[in-house]
Design goal:
Helices cover about 75% and strands about 0% of the residues. It is mainly alpha-helical. Helix 2 runs antiparallel to helix 6. The longest helix has 20 residues.
Amino acid sequence: MKDVKSVEAQAENSNAQKIRRIYQESGLTYDEMSEITGIKRNTLACWISLRRNPPNHALELIKMKMNGLKMISSEENENTESSEKNNGVRQTVSYLE
């Protein structure tokens, strides 16, 4: 069995690591991120846990969908609940730019 730290070190600059960072900073659940991106929950779980490395187009899709979420949330009238939930998404998207 591989050591988790060695797997993370190998994947530091991988697409899976980038998606993991987006997920962690977004504050979304697997189900919410799955719904937003259209990617199956189990597929996201494999990528986020660094068990599999997604192709470049999957990373680009996630970036695009999360940017779309940022644009939608910025058009809302700063509803407190919505603003708090999407705050992590805004920070994540700014990280990607």
